[in-house]
Amino acid sequence: MRIGVPTEVKEAEYRVAITPAGVRELTVGGHDVLVQAGAGEGSALEDDDYVRAGAKIVPDAAAAWNDVDMVLKVKEPLPSEFAFLREDLVLFTFLHLAAARPLTEALIESDCTAIAYETVSGRDGSLPLLAPMSEVAGRMAPQVGADVLQKSAGGRGVLMGGVSGVLPAHVVVIGAGTAGSNAAWIAAGMEANVTILDLDIGRLRAIDSIDKGRVTTLMSNRLTLEEQVAEADLLIGAVLVPGARAPHVVTEEMVASMRPGAALVDISIDQGGCIATSSVTTHTEPTYVKHDVVHYCVGNMPGAVPRTSTYALTNATLPYVVRMSDAGVSEAVANDPGLAEGVNVMGGRVTNAGVAEAFDMEFVELHDVLR
Question: Cystine design at 85: which of 30, 110, 115, 219 (Cβ 3.0–4.6 Å)?
């Protein structure tokens, strides 16, 4: 199989879809890997590193997209890349289609096969390709939140851990999945007062079993949310419905009840955001103020730490890439129900129920498309 790895074009996106070690695994297996010149520079990976691993360096995006069977990316294609989509192409990347109608329509029109990292599932129902980036974003959230809380950034001027004789910041995390639990642990490590809410008592028990009360766990309901959000210095939203648009669990009224200068970080923004006042921002202009609350809603948070993120992502995606390259995509998908869950669009049909529901489109079962 011929595999293309283009340079990411999203603003301030420095990750790349594969490391030289990943290239080596593929080339040893007899596959050709075409890496666009400079694609790894943002992750401190030079073209020579890829050449030594067996890749061919190509000069531009067209060469990395065209005349290949599969394209590996980190982020979803932007409009400038839509022309590269075609019927005989497999695209393997983060897509977050439930929050991106124009991209969904472009994928349908192209007849390509679009497989989303974020909806590939494990045997235990986990999301193994989303997990490493959720872990990165979760660990970053208290860091960026601590910066945003500084007065110079428009925040209340609260130190996360406080000092002797002074209360620490009150951090409220909504969602106890991979991102939320990591956010809670890092915030607790910064000596903040941390509360985490979720609808799943099992997740809360798991956090309690690790933290032994160092992080307060609460069942999520409307009244508890209202009370906790109003008292938060830093609110971190980490709600995920796989493949679907994130629900607005925090209303605009709740945000308006927060103290002036409080801050929020919406990790769910890739899927539309779980806070009603959230709108996607960039690393260049990461924050805005609404209701006197500083909002941080960067859509590709892990892109700020690309070296770590690139290695973590390749660790997770490479086994799937090898399997599809060796067996062919149709056979690999047919033999792996978890990988099949990742197929969002195939043959001009939407094969993910959450995406179809988000845009009131027809949903078609994948096995009906594969026939």
Answer: 110
